[in-house]
Amino acid sequence: QRPDALVRVLTSSDAALRAAGVRLILAEAGNTGRVPVGTHPRLSEMISDSSAEVRAEVARTVGIQGINYGPAQETLIVQLAQEPNPTVRVAILKALEARRAAVAVIQRLLNDPSLLVATAAAETLGRVSHVIKPDAALRGDVIGDLRKAIDGRGKPQDAAEFRAACLEALVLLAVRPDDALAPLFFNLLDAAENERIVRAALR
User: Fold this and answer.
1) Are 21 and 54 in contact (CB under 8 A)?
2) I need a surface site. Which of 49, 55, 117, 191 has the fewest CB within 10 A?
3) Dihedral (C-alpha) 176, 180, 181, 186: value to the nearest 10 degrees?
4) How far apart are CA 67 and CA 32, in angstroms?
């Protein structure tokens, strides 16, 4: 009975009620590592819900470690490419598994108008670097985008966290000793914009 009642909540016409239902699932997923029986298909559908609050809650739920539901991940990638709300874009980025199909969408978000989204995109590229690294062409493309992003994102003091996230991703993508990234690392280390940059440059 409980899963059926929960599915009814998730299909309510009231966005606040739908969001509350997703939070119940999130709480259970956080405790047990799985979602209630029968709710996976509805969660996948709700990734494109009309409510930004609901979309963000669904992304956080799908992103819980140990919840593996392929269709939801595929839908996340599609939604990320068209998501209008920056808070939801960040939530989706954090929820993405390491999939080759997601990399191009994530790369584009390095230029997102929201610095928080762009920073989350750089952090996500670092997190999925192990699926990028074996593909030499893709790796070179991502490294090029990260370097451009470091050089082109406003004044250093306004984007230090973003630049640090890009640098961390570059470190994870580097294949020493063939990478010509050392000058960049030394320049950023010399600028010493923040502690995160210093730690990344010294890796």
Assistant:
1) no
2) 191
3) 110
4) 10
For residues 6 and 36, the answer to whether their CB atoms sit within 8 Å is yes
State pLDDT tens for residues 9-64: 999 999 999 999 999 888 887 787 777 888 888 989 999 999 999 999 999 988 87
What is the C-alpha separation between 122 and 152, in angstroms, rounded? 14
Among left, alpha and beta (phi > 0; psi -120 to 50; other), residue 68 is: beta
Half-sphere exposure of 93 (CA within 13 A, CB side): 30
**Structure tokens given for 20:** 């509350």
CB atoms < 10 A from the CB of 128, how many? 21
**Residue 88 DSSP class:** H
3-state secondary structure of 178: coil
> Residues 84-128: pLDDT tens digits?
999 999 999 999 988 899 999 999 999 999 999 999 999 999 999
